[in-house]
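Entry 14. Two folds queued back to back today. First construct below, sequence then structure tokens.
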Amino acid sequence: MDSLTLVIAMVLSGFVAMFWWQHARYVRQCPSETQIADTTSAPLAAMTHKVPSIAIPALMTLTLLISSVGVYSITGRYSDWNSGKLDENIDYLVAADITKGRLAVGKSPENEIALLNLAQSYAAGGMYQDAVTTLDQLLALRGEDAELLGMKATAMYYRDQRDISLATNLVIARALALHREELQTRLLLATDAYLNGRYQDAIDHWHILLDNQSQGFNRASINNAILKAQSKLNSQN
């Protein structure tokens, strides 16, 4: 059984059990109240002698079940909640951004800003295939764009468990053909080289990136990365 279904069932069962427990407790108290009433007056005895009906807890149980199902069908993912793909570890703010982005794209499917924001939110949430798909939609609208291709290549790289596949290489080639120093692409190539111990290749990619005058980035951090890679390279030699 799905964990969400189990939790919902347990919570509802707890409330239902509480209703019936309170009803049973009240019923048990009725005889003692009746005995007290018998020692006082007949009218009072007649009032307290009535046994509480099960209609009240039954009605409360039915109301709880109907309202729960009704609220969930309106506000929840009734048709596809069990097939959700969001990473359970995604920060709730990122998840909110993804939801907001989906709504924006749903209202304006050809809005480039909305598509870009959604792609970035997907990537931030680790939903790399969704990021790739969204970037493909954006590329179809905008045409070949070095920055978008760099973002797509990066999403493909992390989707494929940090592996530069043939398909990713083709996207990288398209990006660099448009802009040799493209930020995302050079960062991707440098990162992959560094992680795989190819420190000189990483240094070369970072040096090329430093020639980039059209995209903003932290040059000090790139220089620090070069120094760190150079230190590792020297230790190898």
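Second construct, same run, same settings:
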Amino acid sequence: MRLHPFCALHPRPDLAAEVASPPYDVVDAAEARALVLGRPDSFLRVVRSEVGLPQDTDPYAPEVYAAAAERLRAMIADEVLVRDPSPAIWVYRLDWGLQTQIGFVGCVEVDDYLSGRVKRHEHTRRDKEDDRTRHIDTVGAHTGPVFLTCRAQPSLSALQSRLTADAPTLEVTARSVRHRLWRVADPELLGVLERAMAQLDAFYIADGHHRAASAARARDLRRAAHPTAPADAGFERFLAVVFPADQLRILPYNRVVADLNGLSEDAFLERIDGPFEVSPPGSPAAPVSRHEMALYLGGKWRMLRARRHLIDEDDPIARLDVAILQDHLLAPVLGISDPRSDKRIDFVGGIRGTDELSRRVDAQGGGCAFSMTATSIEELLAVADAGLVMPPKSTWFEPKLASGLLVHPLD
């Protein structure tokens, strides 16, 4: 595989903390508006530019994308963001409690994504693709990296230690996560990294399927507008960070359902007693073993254990706990056949804890919630290697990457 050096746009080191923001897709509109208060240089003003417009503004209106482009131009003009004079790879280290992950930031060929060398495990939604495609094309930059992973490679691990020995180029601590980045432009070191990457057969999308799909669509728009552009034009590649799989942490992605599909609590429990072993009330709120899930119903937690005949360990999809829940409970019992579009189900990242699940069910006055085990990184890789697609909202990665620390201009 190839990870190309690029001329990054990044904050001045003294302003990095003012610029860094959460990713655009982990905060809602109200949270985004609250986070930019008193922070004129927050990168949320670029990736969620509606925060600078009236509250009733359609987030997909043309003026939103125009505002993002104008805000990025202003940050460059004011030298809040500066452009590197020469290409480089960046090393990105995140520390969150006892969790540490170290990746390499560079650019990946759009053609590698389209050919399947960058492997996927999720479907994308056209409306979300449309949004990010317009954003990339109007702003003229990839404003956040696609989060990729790769199988562990000893030569990459050794290189990580070598390249992070000195003081970082940029450093920010936000939301209890320490973000550090080192710029690597030395030709010898870049050659070592290139040879290590060449030993990899594939990259895998961990998070960022919509960013990658949108980068490919924006590439096509730019190609049509610039038919004589060189083969290595900026829009032929997209910004990405590659982390070894053995360093990543996946949290559960839990489910909250608005109602019991017309069933009483007793009738619901009777229906699920076939596919699942249902424990008495009073169980823990978090499952500890594969093929278990905790059910919050009627103010109490119960543990569900999938019966053995439901589990096909040879099928990379059917053996996933999120698939077992979907195929044997959500669809046949609760009538949620398409969780991507059904308004009766909501998804809650494990970072919010199980108290958030019980709070939501209690607040809505009915329904239920499911506290899941986390999908493992090996399960994710197996699905991608098989060319299959996981159920929606199967993985929640922590810690989240910061936005605004590295930007890839398309020109």
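Quick look at the second one. The chain has two domains: 9-249+399-409, 253-373. The chain has a mean pLDDT of 96.
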